[in-house]
Request: fold
Amino acid sequence: MTVLDTVGMFDLAEALPEQVEDAAAAARGLVGLPIAEDVEHVVVMGMGGSGIAGDVLVAAAAPFLSVPVVVAKSYECPAFVGEGTLVFAISCSGNTEETIQAASDAAMAGAKVVAVTSGGELRRLAESWGAPLVPVPTDLPQPRAALGALAIPPLIVLEEIGLFRGASYWVRQATDQLKRRRDVLAVAGDTSVAADLARRIGRTIPLIHGGGAVGSTAAQRWKTQVNENAKSPAFWATQPELCHNEVCGWGQHGDVTRQVLTAIALRHDGEHPQIGRRFDLVNELLREVVADVIEVRAEGDGDLAQLMDLIIFGDYVSLWMAAGAGIDPGPVPVLVDLKVALGS
Reply:
């Protein structure tokens, strides 16, 4: 199969393990970080491919932290933000207007801001505030291709502060698992398991289910990667919440949904036992009303490794969906047009 890929999205997916390693190194030794005793809460600000870094932090670090974490994906800065708040302002380009406004309000409120960016207005502001800054490589063409560079630095910074002890260990475990999975996925031609899964999805619309913070973050990433890479609709939901609403929606229209939807269950070792039972029950229900039910199970040691394992798998699936449809996964002209329209 001839693959259309003008900006090298397949190569960038293959380089994710090394990107994670480099990002961890770039986040060490920052000057001007607060001490743990001065941090009452953590807020991660970002949008799109940058904003999911906050969800990764919640999934991987929140269970170990002694302070709450909030992910803010909008123009608004949470009202509680103040001198006791550590804010991670994350923008690959540095020009994300929502993040710039929210981070500016946080700085004005006295929060301790750490910027993760390749440049732009956010870098200029961080330098004017004297805020620590983690540089993001400037040769990454899209925020969604910079997940490691954006999501790993906050984990290392929290370790440096003393709030997330062991972060470096978990990052190493994630890197090792990414390399193992990469060796399976990045095979010559379209014979990988990701390409096979993309063919099973075909022209149907993926409905991705994940359980708990790890599964729901992975499901969200799969959904948005299908949107941006394959230029296709996709939807996601999380267990156990979907058992309290979505399952009711399968009571009718089965003749339609069987033709247009494929369900994908993202499983991991950290699921609550009852979530595992819910997956079994829901998957059995779905077999009657969707084209196919596919299960993908994470591998690796620790929540971060299993999350990143699911993420790289989904990245490749979305890229092979694009390849199968003859679509260039890199450019996203509709997003560019929206930004131009908003700025005019």
The chain has 13 helices and nine strands.
